[in-house]
Amino acid sequence: MTHRMLKQEVKHRIHVVFDRESKGMQMHYPQMESHLEEESPLENCLAQLNRLVGLTQIREFVKEIYAWLEINKRRRAVGLMTEQQVLHMVFTGNPGTGKTTVARILAQLFKEIGILSKGHLIEVERADLVGEYIGHTAQKTREHVKKALGGILFIDEAYSLARGGEKDFGKEAIDTLVKSMEDYRNHFILILAGYSEEMEYFLRMNPGLPSRFPIHLHFPDFSKEQLMQITEKMLRERQYRLSLAAAEKFKNHLINMVSKSDQPFGNARYIRNVIEQAIRHHAVRLLRMRYPSKDELMTIHSEDLVFSSHRKEQKVHSWYN
Question: Which family does it belong to (predicted)?
Fold first, then answer.
């Protein structure tokens, strides 16, 4: 398959790498195709994924997960053996590549097909789990696990839990999560997310973790073409558009940003920040006009786009978090 790589490095662990540059390929299930097309849970999830840019291969992966779970249910119904369905996952990739969005959609899908009872997503990071004194961390972590029961617990920058070494309270959070995975088996799904290299090191430093997370998904950065599609989509949703000069300026800026592969810039999250700033500049400019036309009220000009050289990430909520 050219659109992704599957590597069976250890038993029951799946590594999936999504190639955003590929055109996508159709996958067929001869005896199940018509059944899958009739199922509303899958169609609902694909409809949400279809609103996103650059996630063609993820739609195929979701389809495979759905088919696997559905066939296991049918095998059990006729008395055949099925494997234990462990769905804890690791998401790797830079910020703004769709990790949180996919987790949210998966939570809904798993609820619809009976894997999860609620289908909600609880998003946390180190500060939400790690306490200030002995015992506090375990208490905070258990509270978030209980909130996630029936859904997905999504830990962003999960590698930060191990940054402080053996004496850091982050280790207590890890131990509590592992125990909760046993205590609440099949009652929630845990997803660890973060940068690729940091997550690889994190899992390597915690030998007991990798076997507990059978599915590894990697989200590559968006291409400049896909970033332009995201830009146009975000503007269209807000009933704005770029002038020809502004579109050319934005495109050239993205080419420059993408070429600096050693300096990740937040992908779609960065696009959202730039657009919101441009809309504010657009408003200030139009305020000087007495009677702006409808076209002027909708059009972002080149002068409204200001690209700061300061590239520090700011956490914002968006479809592509």
Answer: Belongs to the CbxX/CfxQ family.
